[in-house]
Q: What sequence folds into this?
């Protein structure tokens, strides 16, 4: 629009000038010494116009010649930049494709064309990593630390190398430096948290976890569980340092953070009882029993009563069991208390309810104790112990990540170092031996008969001992003729 207006204005001036010259004709006289020239006014005006045009063209040519070297340099620089960026892109594609040779070649090409190390150092480092040259990659990442714009990428590369090589202290230091540069970056917070947990820096991990939740770098539900675990870890450290008050304080916070978390309930109740707060411990156990019954809770609940009278212990545990009357743990806790009080019939009834059709190993062991204590029937007791080896194993702490079993709860798995993955449940039956010939017979699965077995094969019922009667008997059974049951190793003998 502006160009159009300028053209119209210029055309108007030319037309107006032409009309003026036509209306007022005349001559222009030029004299130089004895030389005198008379030129008509229109021709003189035309000559002036031509002179201006020629002067403008000459000036433009002069400027072009003067700026030619700089323009040539700019052209080649622009072309090299385009080729360099193309090489940089192709190098990144080669890294993604796992082509170490092509990535290195494109990195060298991009470096020679761009002459900008910040753009090519990362590609060179990744190409070196892909080629297995960790030392070269480390040199590139270290060089990146010297430039502000690449320092964060250099720290990340060095951090990943340190983690891969198992250099925990170096990795933790680099993670702190990365956090100082980019405190809001999610992966920095999660990596720092993992390293602090791996190094058992529980209090620092608590602070990092809180910040990660504020930055929304970690899921809120998982963070709540992890925080309870970290608080329990702090409680254990304080307890080991003989700081009972701080240990109890951390346990209280863990229980408040996740009231249905069994390890928090167990620890808070135990520390409360140890500090003389029996009423508080009783309340904690009763609330926990209604949600997650556990044998350790029943043991601690019974120990809160100083009385040595077994009948009083039975009465006390009846109150606890009533809070979750149908749970097997309630029946087993009552059965143990009744057996201690020598009330055998009631104890047997509770064990029958706890075991059902397929009693687990713990019920089988208690039945063995009952048979020995009530009737002195050692044959029946051994039969129950043998059955225990073939029954579902007792619950224990199992890692939900790797499946490793642990006798006691710990904040992290001893095998995979995962935080808060131990769960109280029945493990899968498994036997791992270097030489299976060394396995006790009771640990091996029963033999199976092929479908095409010969008709004269001896049936299994003829060689296996009869299963024990869960209902019990009033007198010891006669010893069977077959001595295999007596010869079989029991869990007590092992």
A:
């Amino acid at each position: 629009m502006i160009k159009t207006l300028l053209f119209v204005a210029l055309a108007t001036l030319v037309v107006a000038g032409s009309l003026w010259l036509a209306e007022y004709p005349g001559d222009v006289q030029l004299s130089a010494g004895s030389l005198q020239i008379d030129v008509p006014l229109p021709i003189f005006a035309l000559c002036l116009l031509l002179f201006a045009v020629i002067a403008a063209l000459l000036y433009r040519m002069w400027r072009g010649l003067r700026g030619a070297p700089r323009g040539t340099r700019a052209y080649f620089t622009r072309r090299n930049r385009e080729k360099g960026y193309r090489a940089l892109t192709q190098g990144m594609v080669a890294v993604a494709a796992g082509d170490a040779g092509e990535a290195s070649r494109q990195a060298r090409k991009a470096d020679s064309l761009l002459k900008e190390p910040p753009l090519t150092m990362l590609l060179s480092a990744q190409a070196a990593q892909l080629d297995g040259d960790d030392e070269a990659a480390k040199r590139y990442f270290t060089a990146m630390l010297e430039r502000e714009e690449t320092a964060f990428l250099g720290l990340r590369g060095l951090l990943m190398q340190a983690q891969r090589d198992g250099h925990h202290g170096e990795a933790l230091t680099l993670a702190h430096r990365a956090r100082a540069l980019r405190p809001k970056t999610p992966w920095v917070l999660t990596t720092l948290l993992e390293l602090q947990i791996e190094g058992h820096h529980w209090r620092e991990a608590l602070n990092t976890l809180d910040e990660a939740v504020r930055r929304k770098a970690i899921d809120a539900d998982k963070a709540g569980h992890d925080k309870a675990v970290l608080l329990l870890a702090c409680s254990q450290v304080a307890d080991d340092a003989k700081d009972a008050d701080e240990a109890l304080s951390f346990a209280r916070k863990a229980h408040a953070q996740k009231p249905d978390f069994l390890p928090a309930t167990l620890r808070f109740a135990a520390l409360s009882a140890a500090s003389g707060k029996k009423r508080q411990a009783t309340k904690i156990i009763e609330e926990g029993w209604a949600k997650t019954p556990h044998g350790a809770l029943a043991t601690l609940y019974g120990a809160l009563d100083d009385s040595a009278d077994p009948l009083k212990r039975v009465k006390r545990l009846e109150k606890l069991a009533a809070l979750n009357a149908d749970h097997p743990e309630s029946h087993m806790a009552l059965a143990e208390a009744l057996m201690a009080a020598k009330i055998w019939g009631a104890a047997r009834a509770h064990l029958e309810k706890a075991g059902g059709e397929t009693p687990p190993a713990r019920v089988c062991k208690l039945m063995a104790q009952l048979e020995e204590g009530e009737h002195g029937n050692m044959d029946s007791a051994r039969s129950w112990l043998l059955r225990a080896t073939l029954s579902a194993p007792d619950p224990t702490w199992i890692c939900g990540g790797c499946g490793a079993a642990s006798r006691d709860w710990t904040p992290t798995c001893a095998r995979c170092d995962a935080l808060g993955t131990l769960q109280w449940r029945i493990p899968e039956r498994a036997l791992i031996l270097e030489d299976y010939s060394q396995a006790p017979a009771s640990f091996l699965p029963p033999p199976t008969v092929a479908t095409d077995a010969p008709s004269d094969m001896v049936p299994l019922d003829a060689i296996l001992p009869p299963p024990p009667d869960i209902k019990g008997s009033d007198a010891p059974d006669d010893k069977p003729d077959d001595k295999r049951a007596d010869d079989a190793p029991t869990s007590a003998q092992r």
The two ends are 102 Å apart (CA to CA).
